[in-house]
Write a structure and sequence with these properties.
Elements lengths: L1 E3 L3 H11 L11 H6 L1 H20 L8 H17 L8 H13 L3 H12 L5 H17 L3 H14 L3 H17 L3 H13 L3 H21 L3 H14 L11 E3 L5 H15 L3 H21 L7 H29 L12
Antiparallel strand pairs: 1-2
Helix pairs in contact: 1-5, 3-4, 4-5, 5-6, 6-7, 7-8, 8-9, 9-10, 9-11, 10-11, 11-12, 12-13, 13-14, 14-15
Keywords: TPR repeat
InterPro entries: TPR-like_helical_dom_sf, TPR_rpt
Length: about 350
């Protein structure tokens, strides 16, 4: 299964600016700073950390990932020097949790987000925290808790777009525990909230998730049809291969690729392309089986799909050879001399 993970900086920065916490509020007067030198030192430390966070976001404009990681690590240290771990300010701690999540420290992020919830932050912040907590639970294979966290976020989120994303991510969690009925229902509920514009963004990946769910429920043809539909919005599969997605377990990527190649083979206009795509699909099914543990619950179905795909590939090869043979011109007939 895959997950959509939103970058934390933009949204949380808006939250911080919406209700500015005391630690990062407008610079106090000279007299106020003189009366509270320790508080001024803390505020300056956090301002320095904020500048580093903004620099880390310049990655898309040319900053290397290594430099972005360096800025994030420095910002983390500065927040900790400023005493963020003992702060009662949910906005400040949410920013810190975002840094931990970007650094990939999901155990620490989970601990911090759970601590923020104990501070009883405002509803919009709780919704964001539950959403990020669910993503961390997914990373840690704690799927029952992930499902509950998405449920809490949905109870707080009133807007259709974010609700659709929460529903599709929760559907992925149901897939992880083997509840295909709930997974398929969740994907469909997510899609029902989307307009045409949103279909070009996370609607595409929701269709892919629905495809895998339908395939695992035994409906291969509907699965391939949903991938065809997804490609009407995203012909080059940019969304499903984008940086905002990750797979749990990681080898699940091969299942997605196998179905994608299979659909490409069915849609190919030439025999050579059809054979190539079927070959790619077979290789992806084999990669899934090679990567999955022996106790993987979907391995038996993957073996069935591999055999089906091999049969279709063999049929495509026969058809391609037949076409090439029939296209050959007949041998030239000897011609006698004219009298």
């Amino acid at each position: 299964m895959s997950r959509h993970r939103q970058r934390w900086l933009g949204g949380l920065l808006l939250g911080v600016l919406w209700l500015l916490p005391t630690a990062v509020q407008a610079r106090p007067s000279v007299w106020a700073r003189a009366r509270d030198p320790q508080g001024e030192k803390q505020r300056e430390t956090i301002r320095t950390a904020e500048r580093l966070l903004l620099k880390s976001e310049q990655e898309e404009g040319g900053l290397s990932p290594q430099m972005a990681q360096l800025y994030l690590t420095q910002a983390r240290l500065l927040y900790e020097m400023a005493g963020v771990k003992t702060s009662t300010d949910p906005f400040l701690r949410t920013r810190y949790a975002g840094i931990l999540q970007e650094l990939g420290d999901y155990e620490a992020t989970t601990h911090e987000l759970e601590a923020i919830l104990r501070l009883s932050p405002p509803a919009p912040v709780r919704s964001e925290v539950y959403r990020d907590l669910a993503v961390c639970y997914a990373r840690l294979d704690r799927h029952d808790e992930e499902i509950r966290a998405y449920g809490e976020a949905l109870a707080l989120e009133p807007h259709a777009g974010p609700r659709s994303l929460l529903l599709s991510n929760r559907a992925e969690a149901f897939m992880a525990i083997g509840d295909i009925t709930q997974a398929v229902a969740g994907y469909r509920a997510s899609l029902a909230l989307l307009g045409t514009r949103e279909m070009f963004s996370h609607g595409v990946t929701t269709l892919w998730g629905l495809s895998v769910g339908l395939d695992r429920s035994g409906d291969l043809e509907s699965a391939l049809e949903n991938i065809r539909l997804a490609r009407t919005y995203d012909p080059r599969d940019m969304r499903i291969n984008g940086p905002g997605w990750f797979y749990v377990p990681s080898y699940d990527v091969h299942w997605y690729k196998a179905l994608g190649h299979w659909q490409s083979a069915r849609a190919a206009e030439t025999g050579a392309a059809r054979v190539q795509f079927f070959g790619d699909a077979v290789a992806s099914w084999q990669a899934y089986l090679d990567s999955a543990p022996t106790e993987d619950s979907w391995a038996p179905l993957a073996r069935v799909r591999l055999a089906q795909c091999e049969r279709e590939r063999e049929d495509a090869i026969r058809r391609s050879l037949k076409v090439r043979t029939s296209a050959k011109p007949p041998p030239a007939r000897p011609r006698g001399k004219t009298p």
